[in-house]
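quick one before i forget lol
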Amino acid sequence: MSLRRSAELAAVVALAATCSSRAQSPPSSAPAAPVAALSQNPPTQTAPPAQPGIVPVPGAPTSFVGLVKHARASVVNIHSTAIIRQQPVAVFPFGEDSPFYQLVQPPEQRAQSLGTGFVVSADGDIITNNHVVAPEELGGRTADEITVKLDDKREFRARVLARDPATDVALLHVDARGLQPAELGDSDALEVGEWVVAIGEPYGLSSTVTAGIVSAKGRRGDELGGGRGMNHGYWDFIQTDAAINPGNSGGPLLNMRGEVVGINTAINAKAQGLAFAVPINMAKRVVADLRKYGRVQRGWLGLRPIDPHAVGLDLPTGALIGLVVPGSPAHRAGLRRGDVVLQFDGLAVDDGERLRWLSANAGVGKKVLLRVRRGEAEQDIPLVTIAQPD
């Protein structure tokens, strides 16, 4: 290669290198930002707004599993069968010993009912509703056959030890040992808004569990829409929105500690989410009397309240006395017709029905203090309850 050719080639290589260097360098009109300046002022970005998390209601249970597993062993299914005999047909001139007389008689009918109960002693005592073992259709008598099925599927024939239609409570017994008694709680301490669980056999679906809250307390029988003598018994119902259906009757209403606080008893057929339970504290007193006396010992004052509206009065609270029974505790204490009972042993008396319940539930031989308004004055009158006359 000639010297001239070598010089030209060298010039081309130098020119190419210069162009490449210029292409990689930023133009002089837009100098590169110093690295330090970039690190001190990073580009800003708008962060998405924070989404609030889903927070459960304070105190709401996350599960009822443990409670149900513990309590279910104490819950039993109750099947009652009654033989209903029709009125015999008279066939003249044939008598009862005649084959023809027997031939034309109406056949016996078997009525069956379902219910629930719960064990209260290891040797076989069970609490349920009176109407489970003595349905209205039988006119107050007990069923002919009562079968109890335990949670472990064993079945026993049960007998009725005693029952109290006025509170719809019955005490049964089965010949079994080693049963798991239910834990009984304190229904007086139960508050509106508490979670509760019901276990029972609605429509024959055994071991059905429902949950809800206590929606009210102190409901009376006449607020339930009637049925089963609700207007004549002694009621102080717990109201709940836990689903209760036919077959749940007699089963336990449980608090969150798994303690029985009520006996599921009634529903309002015209409403949804309205079920009613006998408070367990009332049932405890009833069962204690049933075991000891075979009947409930109720307190009595000898007062007969009347509806104030019937005599043209508008009383916001209190029980208006319409009659004082001669020789009764109220008579001996000096109460009079027209007095208004405002309190019973410190408990407010809303009306005559509330006074009736409080006096009956006080028991026999109980010293109580009545707050009474007579005219414009108020006074405290002490007296001692006696056994309610038959």
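fyi The longest helix spans residues 3-24.
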